Amino acid sequence: MRIAAVAAHFGRDVEACAAKVEAIAADARAQGVDLLVFPDATLGGYLGGFGAVGETGLPPALAADDAVFARLAAAAGPAVVCLAYREAHGGRFYNSAVCLTGDGVLGRHRKVHQPAGELAAYAAGDAFTAFDTPLGRLGMLVDYDKTFPEAARTLAADGAHVLACLSAWPASLTNRAPRLVQDRQSRLFDLYDCARAAENQVVVVSANQTGTMGRLRFLGQSKVVGPGGDVLARTWAKAGLAVADLDVAGEVTRSRLVLSHLRELRPEAYS
Fold first, then answer.
1. What is the pLDDT of residues 177-214, one digit of tens each?
2. Where is the signal peptide (predicted)?
3. Do residues 16 and 8 touch, judged by C-beta distance below 8 A?
């Protein structure tokens, strides 16, 4: 299987974002990519800064059945594509991810864990559920979700061999480093990606925004991580694709041959 994580910037113009998704998907398909993961806030961009929603305005809100998703499903063709948007539902708004292929929607996720700056813009989701795709069982995490080990563990326990992590992860606002690679959030972003993969012995496909939005400077650093916690492909701060070829089922099975973290759990000791 060929897997790719996107590093790119997405702004407020949904039409421009959709066109960018189509162009990147076409390029990825030409490279033989089977699974393509976009960053958080793919359609309409992210917030402008924690506690500063007004700086760039709120991202446009889309219903889950908006026509743009049929358009992007067609762009996905035989590939499996994960992307994110601000969802409007029942008078509330969610930071949501959707997994598409040419046949339609395969799965959805609403971001559960919220940093303080999101509380005015989004309601919280309430579940982590894996789902079947033509490429195997997959689960999605949005941004801050991956900070919490229980989120990834729940998806792995539900049978996911691949975790798609869609992020708009910025550099530190309180302790800026002169270079992104030296930033505290840069270190944590990489640490969480590798730890979640190794803890659960799964493949993590981590996509992140680049560029800036209001006060936020996004890290990039998209990557594909193997079930041993090893980075198989990555980008840095600039836009690009992190592409890796691997036998997901084979690698996950091999990583669990001697030590199987899920099988050897002792949940009775955690209560």
1. 888 888 999 999 999 999 999 999 999 999 999 999 99
2. none
3. no
Q: For the chain, how big is the Rg over CA atoms in Å?
A: 17
pLDDT of residue 52: 45
Q: Look up the CATH number of the domain holding residue 73.
A: 3.60.110.10
**Contact status, residue 39 vs residue 170, Cβ threshold 8 Å:** no
Q: Determine the longest span between alpha carbons in the chain, in angstroms.
A: 52
CB 134 within 8 A of CB 79: no
| Count of domains observed in the chain | 1
Please give the span between the terminal C-alpha atoms of the chain, in angstroms, as a whole number: 39
| Inter-CA distances, 167 with 77, 79, 146, 219, Å | 24, 20, 9, 10
Q: Note the pLDDT tens digit of each residue in 173-185.
A: 888 888 888 899 9
How many whole angstroms separate alpha carbon 242 and alpha carbon 229? 16
Which structural domain, as residue segments, surrounds residue 66? 2-269
Q: What's the rounded Cα separation, in Å, for the pair 253 and 257? A: 6
Rounded to whole angstroms, how far apart are CA atoms 252 and 254? Answer: 5
CB 155 within 8 A of CB 139: yes
Distance CA 75, CA 67 (A): 13
Q: Are strands 2-8 and 35-37 parallel, antiparallel or unpaired?
A: parallel
CB 202, CB 136: distance < 8 Å? no
